[in-house]
């Protein structure tokens, strides 16, 4: 499964690891993805989301009903 946040759409960034001798090798910066279960009153059931740490803060700020409505409007399954 890809490292992608269902709330914000955050995806991995890419760059280089630079050693002491300044040799550059490819690396990947993954978002902090967590599997989190929420009770959604509008759906009347629990929903499991793959969200980043920043996505969890967004859910706390906006509310789970608003966020789930946005996810469903994009056509994603929850």
UniProtKB/TrEMBL annotation:
Membrane-spanning ranges: none
Pfam families xref list: Ribosomal_L28
Phylogenetic classification of the source organism: Bacteria, Bacillati, Actinomycetota, Actinomycetes, Micrococcales
Family statement drawn from the similarity comment of this UniProt entry: Belongs to the bacterial ribosomal protein bL28 family.
NCBIfam families cross-referenced by the UniProt entry: L28
A cellular component annotation (GO) from this entry: ribonucleoprotein complex
Protein name: Large ribosomal subunit protein bL28
Single GO term (MF): structural constituent of ribosome
